[in-house]
Amino acid sequence: MNQIENKNIILTTLNSRFSHSSLSLRYLFANLKELKDEAKILEFVINSQNQTIAEEILAYKPKIVAISTYIWNATDVEEIVKYIKLISPSTIVALGGPEVSYLPHRVDFNMADYFMFGEGEVSVYNLCKNILGGIRPKDKIIQAKPVEFDKIELPYDYYTDFDIKNRHIYIESSRGCPFTCEFCLSSIDSSMRYLPTDVFINEIDKLWNRGARNYKFIDRTFNLKISYAKAILEYFLAKDEDYFLHFEVIPDNFPLELRELLKQFKAGSLQLEVGIQTLNLDVAKTINRNLKMEKIKDNLSFLSNETNAHMHIDLIVGLPGETIESFRENLDLLYTLSNGEIQIGILKKLSGTTLSRHDEVYGMVYNPNPPYDILKNNQIDFSLMQDMKRFARFWDIVYNSGNFIKTSKLLFKDGKVFDNFFDFSKWIYKRSESTFKISLDRVAEYLFEYLGQMYDEELIVKTILDDVMTVEGRKIPPFLKRYKKYEKEFIQIELNKANRRQILRKDNEE
C-alpha cells in the first residue's frame, strides 16, 4: 500500500459532476504563498459515499480542512463535517463559498470551526497561517473584503494535465455584476473588476499550449465590456484547431463590432447562456431586472439566424407576481424568437438575496432544504408548482436534449407551445410515474403513443425515426420494429448506415 504524504492543509469540495473542476480551490491554493507545499487539493463528486470522502481527507492527517460549499453539495458537506469532527476532533474545519457566506444558514453546519464569508483568497491564507502558527481566531465568522482582483495570484497553472484532458476548464476575466436582479447572489457585488486584458489572454494562451480546448467562462456578463470581449473572441478566432467556449451574456448588448466576430465562429465552437428569466415587464420591474424588449428580440433573432452559436436561454417559474398565464406567454413568445435551448428553471430563494421582501405580499413559500426551490405562491398553488417542476424536467428530456427536434414541432401545433407541452407532461408523468431514468427508446415510444391521438401513424413513425437516427450509431427503437409495414423504411435506414460506415472506412484508409 502506498504511503500517503501528510498535508497540513486540505482544500476540498464536491463537484456536481466528474467533468467539472473547482476554480475556487485553485484560487485558494494559488494564494497560499509559502504554505503551498503543506497543502493539497482534493475534489470529489456529489452522491459519493461521504464516509469514504472523510476517510480520504483524514488519510493526509490534516490540521486544517477547508471546504468550498455550494447549494448542490451543502447536505453532503454537513455530513462530512460531522464525520471529520467525530473522528478527528482536533482537525480544524473551515467552510467557505456562497452557501455559507450569507445568513441564515439553512443547513446545520454548526460543527464546523470557522465560516469564511466572501472571497477567500486572502482570508483563507491568513487563517491557515495563524492556525499553523499556534493562533486560533476567536470569531467563528471571518468576513473577508473583496480582493484586489488584479493583484492576487491566478489559479490556472494548477489545473493538472488530467484536468485539461478530461474536465471543463473554468476561467474568469472579471468579477461582479452591475445588475440588481433580486434572485441572484451576483447582484450583491455590483462593482465590476477586470484583469488586465494582456494578463488574462496570456493565461488563456498558457492553457491552450498545454492542450486545453474546452473553456467555460464564469463571468456573469461577458459582453458588458465590449473591448474586452472582442480581445478574447479574436484570440480564439485566430486558432485553426477545434475548441469549445461557453459564455454567460446579457441579451441586450450585441453591437455591430461584436456581431461581426460572433458570426465567424463555426458550429459547435460557441455556446451562449442568455439570461432572460421573464419577458413580463411588470414582473421584471418587481425583481429589479431591466428589460429592453426590442433589443432582446433583435439580438435573439441575430444570434438564431446569423450565427452558429448554441444558445441556452433561461426562463424562471415562480417569480413574484408571475402568473402561470404570464409564464405561458413568455414561453410561447420565446419559442418564436429563438431556436436555442430554453432552460426552464424553478425560482430558488438563496440567503443573501432580497427575495424575502416579497414573501408576505405574494405568499411565497419555499423548500427549507437545498435547493430552496419555491413550493407555492399566491399565483401558483403547490399542485400546479409540482406540475411545473415536472414540466421543466420533461422539457429537458424532449426539447432541450435535441433528440426530438422534429417530433417536438408536432407537439407544438397551432403555436400553443406551453399548453400543448403542459398536457403532454401531465400525460407522460401519469404514464411513466417518473421523471428520471427514462431511456431514449422509452421517450420515443411515449411520444409515438401520445401523438397517435392527433396525427397519422406513418407521419409519426417517420418523424421519430428522422430524429432518433440523426445520431450515428443509434439503433431503430425496438417498439417500432413491431410495425412490419414499415420494414422497407427500416431496411433502408440500415443500408444507409452501412454505406456511411463504408465511406468512413475508405476515408480513413486514404
TrEMBL record:
<dbReference type="Pfam" id="PF04055">
    <property type="entry name" value="Radical_SAM"/>
</dbReference>
<dbReference type="InterPro" id="IPR023404">
    <property type="entry name" value="rSAM_horseshoe"/>
</dbReference>
<dbReference type="GO" id="GO:0003824">
    <property type="term" value="F:catalytic activity"/>
</dbReference>
<keyword id="KW-0408">Iron</keyword>
<feature type="domain" description="B12-binding">
    <location>
        <begin position="7"/>
        <end position="138"/>
    </location>
</feature>
<keyword id="KW-0479">Metal-binding</keyword>
<keyword id="KW-0949">S-adenosyl-L-methionine</keyword>
<protein>
    <submittedName>
        <fullName>B12-binding domain-containing radical SAM protein</fullName>
    </submittedName>
</protein>
<dbReference type="InterPro" id="IPR006158">
    <property type="entry name" value="Cobalamin-bd"/>
</dbReference>
<dbReference type="InterPro" id="IPR051198">
    <property type="entry name" value="BchE-like"/>
</dbReference>
<keyword id="KW-0411">Iron-sulfur</keyword>
<dbReference type="GO" id="GO:0031419">
    <property type="term" value="F:cobalamin binding"/>
</dbReference>
<dbReference type="GO" id="GO:0005829">
    <property type="term" value="C:cytosol"/>
</dbReference>
<dbReference type="GO" id="GO:0051539">
    <property type="term" value="F:4 iron, 4 sulfur cluster binding"/>
</dbReference>
<dbReference type="Pfam" id="PF13311">
    <property type="entry name" value="DUF4080"/>
</dbReference>
<feature type="domain" description="Radical SAM core">
    <location>
        <begin position="163"/>
        <end position="385"/>
    </location>
</feature>
<dbReference type="InterPro" id="IPR006638">
    <property type="entry name" value="Elp3/MiaA/NifB-like_rSAM"/>
</dbReference>
<dbReference type="InterPro" id="IPR025288">
    <property type="entry name" value="DUF4080"/>
</dbReference>
<dbReference type="InterPro" id="IPR058240">
    <property type="entry name" value="rSAM_sf"/>
</dbReference>
<dbReference type="InterPro" id="IPR034466">
    <property type="entry name" value="Methyltransferase_Class_B"/>
</dbReference>
<dbReference type="Pfam" id="PF02310">
    <property type="entry name" value="B12-binding"/>
</dbReference>
<dbReference type="GO" id="GO:0046872">
    <property type="term" value="F:metal ion binding"/>
</dbReference>
<dbReference type="InterPro" id="IPR036724">
    <property type="entry name" value="Cobalamin-bd_sf"/>
</dbReference>
<dbReference type="InterPro" id="IPR007197">
    <property type="entry name" value="rSAM"/>
</dbReference>
